[in-house]
Amino acid sequence: MPAILPRPRRRAERRPGTRRTSGRGVIAGRQVRCEAPGWAVRWHTGYPPRAVDRHDVPLLCGRFAIDLAEGFA
Fold first, then answer.
1. How far is 53 from 65, CA to CA, in rounded Å?
2. Residues 6+ apart with CB under 8 A from 13
3. Structural domain span for residue 46
4. Which pLDDT belongs to residue 10?
5. Which end of the chain is more exposed for a tag (fewer CB within 10 A), N or C?
6. Is residue 69 a contact partner of residue 44, using CB atoms and an 8 Å limit?
7. Domains: count for the chain
8. pLDDT tens, 3-58?
9. Strand pairing class (23-27; 30-34)
10. How far is 71 from 42, CA to CA, in rounded Å?
11. Buried b (16+ CB within 10 A) or exposed e, 31-69
12. pLDDT per residue over 38-52, tens digit each?
């Protein structure tokens, strides 16, 4: 199994006033903080997409009106 290495963080990836956990969701009727949809799509890019990525990214983009990431068309 290949090792999964963390991506280095770069300040240029963050926009002022945007937090990675700025998303909101509901689990069992309770509001929770979560990763913003744009960040979820961002973390699925930058490497050759796997089958799960090809499944998840179009669903995320469609649900949250995000432009489909390059390589997922």
1. 17
2. 42
3. 36-73
4. 54
5. N
6. yes
7. 1
8. 555 555 555 455 444 556 677 889 999 999 888 888 888 888 888 999 999 999 99
9. antiparallel
10. 12
11. eeebebbbbbbbebeeeebeeebeebbeebbeeeeeeeb
12. 888 888 888 899 999
* 62 has pLDDT over 90: yes
61: confidence class by pLDDT, cuts 50, 70, 90: very high
Residue type, 73: A
- Evaluate whether residue 45 is within a structural domain: yes
Query: Dihedral (C-alpha) 50, 55, 57, 62: value to the nearest 10 degrees?
Result: 160
The answer to whether residue 15 sits within a structural domain is no
Whether the predicted pLDDT of 60 surpasses 60: yes
In a domain, 69, yes or no: yes
- At which residue do the structure tokens 């961002």 appear? 42
